[in-house]
Amino acid sequence: MSLDDVVSRIHAAVPAQTRALVAIDGVGASGKTTLATALARHITTRPVLVLHVDDFFNVAAVRHARGRTSAEGFWLDAINTSALRSALDHLSAEGEGLYRAASIDHRSGRSWDPPRQAAAPRALVLVEGVFLHRDELVDYWDFSVWLDVAPDEAARRMVQRDGLDPDDPRLERYEGAQRLYVERARPRERASVVIDMTKPSAPRVVA
Fold first, then answer.
1. 102: domain CATH number?
2. Record keywords: Secreted included (predicted)?
């Protein structure tokens, strides 16, 4: 599957004359950021902007309220869903286009209200990150992608990418949260397209 294939599917599904919201969802190290960056460079027929779910994380006190190793805590508390929904409301076709691109300052770990930015009237908004097919968010998307990777392969990539010890408890917390998400939100069923990313150099659409 090529970038042109993904772009064609997006263009066929989303409104052409208003802003459109596209979710790029998947487990950690499945290729979400890489795909969003590539699409943003590849699409030249309309303005494109990219939002990162990591920029809408809750502060540590909220994320870890159920315990630093709690999978349920990561699934339920990692994302400041209200802040992300506010940004999506403003970026939707019905919104006025003024949005905040983050709700947390990663350097200080504190909540943050950055200056509002203006999105172009026909902007294609790519939102990449985890848990985007959860009940509170699924109805926002004009098109959505689920990047499918086996849990053990995703864990291997995260260890390699982030320099983690294979026994780091954060890995089990994250894997457990993803299992809860898949069970409760069924992202494979809800996504517009499922792409098998077992081989990142040869992505494959899953029927």
1. 3.40.50.300
2. no
Contact 24, 5 (CB under 8 A): no
Helix (H) or strand (E) holding 54: none
Number of structural domains in the chain: 1
Q: What is the pTM of this model?
A: 0.95
Q: Which residues pair with 82 in a beta bridge?
A: none
Buried/exposed code over 16-53 (b: 16+ C-beta within 10 A; e: otherwise): eeebbbbbbbbbbbbbbeebbeebeeebeebebbbbbb
The range of the structural domain enclosing residue 188 comes to 3-206
Token pair, residue 51, equals: 């939002």
Alpha-helical regions (H) of 122-207: 151-162, 169-185, 187-190
Tens-digit pLDDT profile for residues 13-28: 999 999 999 999 999 9
Mean pLDDT of 73-84: 98
d(CA 105, CA 110): 6
C-beta neighbour count of 132 within 10 angstroms: 28
